[in-house]
Amino acid sequence: MRGADSRFTAVYVDGVRMDSQSTGGASWQSIPLALIDRIEVLRGPAAAVYGSDAMGGVVQIFTKKGEGAPQPYVGLGFGNRGTFTAEAGISAAPTAGITRWGLNRSQTDGFNARTVATANPDEDDYRSNAVSAAWLPAQRPAPARSHLAGQRCELGLRQQPDRGRRSLNKMFALGLNWQAQWTEHYSTKLQFSQSRDYYETRPSPYQTDTRLHNYLFQNTWRLGVHTLTAALERRDDALTNGGIDRDRHQNALALGYGLKLPARTRAAEPAPG
Questions:
Q1: Which of 7, 95, 156, 165 gets the most CB atoms within 10 Å of its CB?
Q2: C-alpha dihedral (208, 200, 206, 166), degrees to nearest 10
Q3: Bridge-based pairing state of the strands 83-91 and 126-135
Q4: By CB neighbour count within 10 A (0-12 exposed, 13-18 middle, 19+ buried), where does 212 fall?
Q5: Does residue 132 fall inside a structural domain?
Q6: Tens of pLDDT along 61-78?
């Protein structure tokens, strides 16, 4: 994006940052299309807001949410070369508590994409399994109104048999959000998210495992046209790759002030004549 490598494009799934510290960027092939509701793209540098991962841009992926009364759904699909897809779950509007829960599986026998003598004569098949869930309990009445929203997505279990050689990719995302409106003027927000990108080849011993954690505690005071914010945030990154076993963390304190003035109205001019 904008001429930058994929490692310079930040990828978020329902607000959870996805990344691989070894290969760079998210594993796009492990995100099932059946779970996606929409995708928003921010082109150009956004590192000031999203961090150094967003020098080229930001891709926000939003999974499907429930609508209306609780209702189950089932879907099946078939194609040539042993292609098969299946999905099942239940969805409902946020006021019903559970907003979504679903399972998805897809597979194909594939075909040999490279028939030259020097290439491996495999069928390039794959298996992909995914599970996702979102939960939003009913809100309490004011003034102590609060809500908890959590989402757990295991996006993609990709496995490619290769006549004894296999590649396995796992993606996992978890997000928890809690907000409370304590008074008319004061509210707080707590957020926790974690993600994992694991890649392994078999029988060769190559393995890489990236784990990301993010913590946020934010306070907001609104007094008329004035808004004050104070936030504490921590970000942990860890990578295990062969002989590499390293981690790093970043701590931040953010203070903000906002002023929102009412729109001015022009005085009515007297009618001519």
A1: 156
A2: -160
A3: unpaired
A4: buried
A5: yes
A6: 888 777 777 788 888 999
